[in-house]
Give the backbone structure.
Amino acid sequence: MANGKCAEEQDEPFRNIWAMCQPFTMTSFDRGLALFRGVRYIVENRIPGDFVECGVWKGGSSMIAMLTLRHFKAANRRFFLFDTFQGMTEPTDVDIDVHSQPAKDLLCSAHVAKETVQIWAHSPINDVRNNIERTEYPPDLITFVEGDVRNTAPVARTKSPANSASSRGYAAAPREKTRVAANPARPRLG
Ligand SMILES: C[S@@+](CC[C@H](N)C(=O)[O-])C[C@H]1O[C@@H](n2cnc3c(N)ncnc32)[C@H](O)[C@@H]1O
């Protein structure tokens, strides 16, 4: 599966999807393929629900999901895309890597403007909109939720976007933000 190769014939459609989305995601080929398979599983098994991604950066992961839905003629689900669209927020004490290295140290060592340093993951909302438009996914089904997810997720929950999420991205928002964003739909994900 590695090195850009799809071992199984039913994964073949992912080749073109990956070629289109790869420039707009930090995720690897294998993880992109896993996302493709996950979305296909949802469609094939008629699992209801919307899609939520928390931390979309340039939009590539959601683009994979959207193009997969289009490929399987199932582009009828809503997408809720949460991000500051101004890059990572400041890490707190609970944000550490697998080696217990504080994210503060990592990010603060990148002491340059957010716009110029990839580690801060800055991607303006208009750029993301343009990227997402390439998928030709129905625009009325896509909601951009701008702001710190610690503030926007609880509000969005009361307006019910994540009430029946069938898939979601935890894609690399720091731990505290991920916990906040995960809570609304977790009980419904089983
Ligand atoms: C590593 S990138 C996500 C990568 C992306 N999922 C992909 O497929 O390439 C992390 C994203 O989380 C966003 N982010 C970080 N902290 C956030 C917060 N507190 N609220 C909302 N978005 C946040 C950043 O702006 C950035 O776009």
The longest strand covers residues 50-54.
